[in-house]
């Protein structure tokens, strides 16, 4: 028999409908104080915390639901996905496998398990999970795309194209389907067809950073060098900026010392996290989620840094980067602490509009201008883009207190270095959005 909704939960629901989310949170918590096993209050509060980005709190609540009501498969699925978002893939896989065992006919659980395996580059296992999901949810377009991605990762590009095409037959406006099919078409040597898909993709989603990057590569593949250079205009769009010291710090060295101390002692660092570009080093979560005073100061520094860049941009409605206009922005900063032989695999920032690298501590070996160890390099397409052409690959020497800023779709990575001194930098994004 379904649990009745308590008066306090109903009151919390009214607060949610009126947009008073803090009041709703407090009311749901009061409901749980009166009855710890109130499943409805737990569900409401868990979803609210997820929407607010409070993943750790949501996981705690979802775990309680799983213990109290193990047949609530939807909440257990949400628990597995939430844990995976924290990059604890081993625990997420364990939760997902237990769910699949208890609910073998729940297609979404098999799909979630596939996603958890896929992010760990276990494509064969992921493919098996996705295919079981498709058996249970025939015609599921997201599962078709997931199968295509797993096949593409395994080098089975033709089969991947077939799956993406099935999606597009039913949903021609699928941005994901268009982008992934274009990438696979390039891999089998059909750049003209790939370009048609990319153009369709950008007509639907003009700010898709992955599609802009792929379009630039395809221009080069098709011998359209001027168009490729216009998209990857290194001289025009890559800029170095040196922020001024924040007011409460004597100089940038003192400020950088405070930021490094926070990174080392107060932030979550993970070694070579799955799904990220870091090799031979540590990677943090978004530092700016921390309300610490130093992080608030860092946010202001980065905001001013990006604004300096934006003020120098011209208007150009025909350029895929310059035509993007946003009413609001938020800033993101991820620390990267590279040790000897560490480097960043070539990547882009698909969620951003502007991105950059901000340097806090640089090993002296970087001064070698012949071998360029630890330098930032642009222009090498990401590994999943099977390109036969070479773009321009300018390198920039990092310097403490300097930021290198560029469009988020620019391919960039770093060279390995040999040193006992770490290379500490921030990967930063300016993410645009509309009200």
Question: Any overview of this molecule?
Answer:
This protein is α+β, with helices and mostly antiparallel strands. The chain has a domain at 236-433: q2cbj1_9rhob like domain (Jelly Rolls). The protein has helices spanning 7-17, 21-34, 39-51, 55-68, 73-85, 89-102, 107-118, 123-136, 141-153, 157-170, 175-187, 191-204, 209-221, 225-231, 234-237, 252-266, 293-311, and strands at 239-241, 269-271, 278-286, 328-344, 354-361, 376-378, 395-396, 403-407, 412-414, 423-433. The strands form two sheets. Strands 1-8-5-10-4-3-2 form a seven-stranded antiparallel β-sheet. A hairpin with a 6-residue loop joins strand 2 and strand 3 (278-286). Helix 4 (55-68) packs antiparallel against helix 5 (73-85) and helix 7 runs antiparallel to helix 8. The longest helix has 19 residues, at 293-311.
Task: List the SSEs and their pairings.
Blueprint: H1 7-17, H2 21-34, H3 39-51, H4 55-68, H5 73-85, H6 89-102, H7 107-118, H8 123-136, H9 141-153, H10 157-170, H11 175-187, H12 191-204, H13 209-221, H14 225-231, H15 234-237, E1 239-241, H16 252-266, E2 269-271, E3 278-286, H17 293-311, E4 328-344, E5 354-361, E6 376-378, E7 395-396, E8 403-407, E9 412-414, E10 423-433
Tell me what the CATH architecture of the domain at 236-433 is.
Answer: Sandwich
Q: What is the strand content? A: 5-15%
* Strand order, largest beta sheet: 1-8-5-10-4-3-2
Mean pLDDT: 94
Shape from CA axes? globular
């Amino acid at each position: 028999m379904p649990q009745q909704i308590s008066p306090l939960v109903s009151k919390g629901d009214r607060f949610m409908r009126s947009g008073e989310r803090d009041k709703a949170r407090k009311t749901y918590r009061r409901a749980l104080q009166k009855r710890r096993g109130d499943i409805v209050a737990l569900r409401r509060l868990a979803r609210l915390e997820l929407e607010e980005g409070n993943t750790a709190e949501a996981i705690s609540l979802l775990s309680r639901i799983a213990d109290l009501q193990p047949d609530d498969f939807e909440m257990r699925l949400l628990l597995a996905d939430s844990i995976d978002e924290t990059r604890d893939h081993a625990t997420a896989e364990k939760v997902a496998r237990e769910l699949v065992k208890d609910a073998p006919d729940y297609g979404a659980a098999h799909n979630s398990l596939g996603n958890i395996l896929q992010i760990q580059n276990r494509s064969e296992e992921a493919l098996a999970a996705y295919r079981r999901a498709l058996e249970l949810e025939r015609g599921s377009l997201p599962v078709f795309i997931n199968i295509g991605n797993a096949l593409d990762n395994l080098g089975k590009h033709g089969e991947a194209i077939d799956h993406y095409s099935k999606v597009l037959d039913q949903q021609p406006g699928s941005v994901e389907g268009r982008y992934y099919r274009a990438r696979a078409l390039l891999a089998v040597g059909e750049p003209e067809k790939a370009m048609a898909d990319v153009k369709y993709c950008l007509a639907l989603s003009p700010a898709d950073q992955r599609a802009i990057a792929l379009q630039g590569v395809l221009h080069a593949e098709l011998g359209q060098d001027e168009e490729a250079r216009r998209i990857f205009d290194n001289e025009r769009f890559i800029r170095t900026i040196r922020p001024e010291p924040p007011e409460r710090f004597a100089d940038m060295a003192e400020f950088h010392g405070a930021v490094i101390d926070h990174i080392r002692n107060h932030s979550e660092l993970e070694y070579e996290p799955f799904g990220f570009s870091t090799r031979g080093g540590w990677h943090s979560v978004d530092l700016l989620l921390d309300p610490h005073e130093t992080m608030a100061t860092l946010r202001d520094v980065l905001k001013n840094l990006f604004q300096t860049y934006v003020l120098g941009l011209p208007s150009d409605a025909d350029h895929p980067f310059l035509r993007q206009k946003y009413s609001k922005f938020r800033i993101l900063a991820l620390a990267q602490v590279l040790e000897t032989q560490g480097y960043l695999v070539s990547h882009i920032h698909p969620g951003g509009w502007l991105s950059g690298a901000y340097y806090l501590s640089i090993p002296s070996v970087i001064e070698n201008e012949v071998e360029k160890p630890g330098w930032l390099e642009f222009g090498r397409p990401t590994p999943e883009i099977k390109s036969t052409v070479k773009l321009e690959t300018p390198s920039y020497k990092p310097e403490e207190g300097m930021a290198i800023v560029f469009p988020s779709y620019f391919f960039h990575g770093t060279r390995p270095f040999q040193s006992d001194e770490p290379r500490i930098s921030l990967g930063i994004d300016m993410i645009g959005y509309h009200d």
